[in-house]
Amino acid sequence: MTTHCGYFPNARFLSFMVNSCTYANLLDASVALLSKASQFGCRIEAHAYNKLMRLLIGHGRVNDAVALFERWIDDGVYSPDVCSFNVVIKGVCHVDGLCRVNEVDRGRQVLRRLKRDGVFMPNIVTFTSVISGYCKSGKMEDAMAVYNDMVESGTAPNMVTYNVLINGYGKVGDMGSAVTVYQQMMLLHCPPDVVTFSSLIDGYCRCGQLDDALRIWIEMSRYHIQPNVYTFSIVLHSLCKQNRPEEAVGLLNELNMRSDIAPQAFIYNPVIDVLCKGGKVDEANLIRKGMEEKGCLPDKYTYTILIIGYCMKGKMSEAITVLHKMVETGCTPDNITINCFITCLSKAGMPNEVDHAMFVASGGALSSQKTPPPSIRIPKLVKIMRTNRIFY
Question: Among residues 243, 247, 165, 157, which one has the least CA distance to residue 208?
Fold first, then answer.
């Protein structure tokens, strides 16, 4: 059409071709077509470029997206909209979720260029994207510098902006600054949400200031904001880490009363672990049963904690029962579980149970016999045990 017949497409048809290639994930073909826009005298609509840039960034080709973005503007065949700039800046500030500092700096450079050239006035999403990038990189001074630029430009921060800053300060352990941002947020009548309080609680817990975290938990209820599964997880982990099992069990009971939260194993496991370490293995096993009643399946960590807990108490028959339950539910024990269990069996003077434990752990059929015949023992598991030197 273009080479042999000399017909040039108009902007609408070229956009159609670009979109078709983009949806087919032929990104290089889309780029090649758009590069001919100036040759064809076409001015392409922003949405065609925005879709392509999103996909390039999604495929880790951030540099390609930014280079094309700048070239398209310079060629004058593209009129970017607010979405265009947000796509590019969010892209460079959230590279692969890692937020590398050099990429965030590039996002800030783009932001400065836009303001300098008067091409586009950054909005709240643009500023917050760069702030978020710096916060995730731990560069809080740079994050606040961008925040100040935003305020000076007349763009009012919103709840998301404040939450990003509070979370950033909490991650680096600067709770004084996190609280200052929170207070400023309240002074400007920007209502906090569960993310705000969860970030404060997380920050205090990271600093080992659990009582301050619990104070924020109480303050959250004054605003009639319900903690979510993440908030519960933060506090439960911290209570268990500081060996406060009674409070952890009480909070877990509060969680179990919430019908709007689907509990998961990673929330229960620290509580089960701290109870086992305190010798309260039967109570820990009741927590496991409560999990199942709530429709939450224990994972391999849940079972491993209980097996080792019973072994440490010398309750080998209970440990074997938990191992049976583990295998029945389709949860395969790993080498750590098996090694610990068989070591405990050996120390307890129960060599006859070793083969049985190996057989059960390998997925063998459960029966009343304690030791399966040699013909049905699993060679692969025997090899694992020898490799890990657990035979005596």
Answer: 243
CA atoms within 13 A on the CB side of 14: 25
Quote the CA–CA distance of 324 and 368 in Å, as a whole number.
12
- Find the Cα–Cα–Cα–Cα dihedral 14, 15, 20, 26, rounded to 10°: 80
Domain locations along the chain = 1-80, 311-392
Other Cβ atoms less than 10 A from the Cβ of 182: the count is 22
Residues 6+ apart with CB under 8 A from 125: 82, 86, 90
Per-residue pLDDT tens, the chain, 392 aa: give them: 777 776 777 778 877 888 888 888 888 888 888 777 767 777 767 777 788 888 888 777 877 787 777 777 676 666 677 777 778 777 766 664 434 555 677 667 766 766 666 556 678 888 888 898 889 889 999 999 999 989 988 889 999 999 999 999 999 999 999 999 999 999 999 999 999 999 999 999 999 999 999 999 999 988 899 999 999 999 999 999 999 999 999 999 999 888 888 888 999 999 999 999 999 999 999 999 989 888 889 999 999 999 989 988 888 889 888 988 888 888 878 777 777 778 887 777 776 777 776 776 665 544 433 443 333 333 343 444 444 443 32
Both tokens of 346, joined, read: 């050996």
Side-chain half-sphere CA neighbours of 140 within 13 A:
18
What's the CA gap between 269 and 303, in Å, rounded? 9
Helix H segments across 257-299?
265-277, 281-293
CA distance 374 to 104: 62
